[in-house]
What does this fold into?
Amino acid sequence: DSQKGLLISGGESLASMLELRSYLANYSHLFTSLLFNSWMLILWQYIKNIVSFFSLPFFFVSGASQPINGVIGTGRFHLIEVITIPLGIMYGIRMKTKYLIPMYIWMILIILIGCMQKIVPHPTRTYAIIIPFIVFSTEGVFFLVENLWKQKMQAIKTIGVLIILGSISYSFLYYLVSYTASFPIKYEKDWRAEDEKLVQYLQTNQHLYDKIIVDESADFAYTSLLFYQ
It folds into this structure.
């Protein structure tokens, strides 16, 4: 049941969609039955999810909204890849590159399956789309470099390469600083940073007591106890 609740056909998601139908109670029953039945509402939500899946902020700027799903403030890809990924996709189609066919199928399947969920795009449940996107981005970089090298003016080549390398370097350094310095401090509570210290304390002092009770208000996860022991 909990797994079904993650889908757009789940009870909670369907209830919010059917709420719209309740506002049309005074209209023709045939009208509401044909256009606002469960299947039509699910189809409409599915189409909206497909559109929402291609979120530029999620993939290239801000990333996940929950700290347990990723480093807040950093996208899944370098900012310059907002150019190289579409370029790679279009370049592969134009050149009819056969070895990219599995990547196209992979990408389409992840999108079609991932959009069946009520949260789209989801940072972990659609994580596998990173693989085809990396491949397409690489193709896009090759396309850019190839066209830069065709330019007769050396200055254009130099500036183009510097822009590409500079963008990638900045994105990498920004992520590195966020991951190693900012994120561990700002979101340590969300990652239960104190659980390890508590388990160490319990292990050190458990021989002094017959029973140790942890109050529910401490929000201590039993899995943390198992993991750190």
In short: The longest helix spans residues 154-186. The radius of gyration is 25 Å. The CA atoms of residues 50 and 140 lie 23 Å apart. The mean pLDDT is 85.
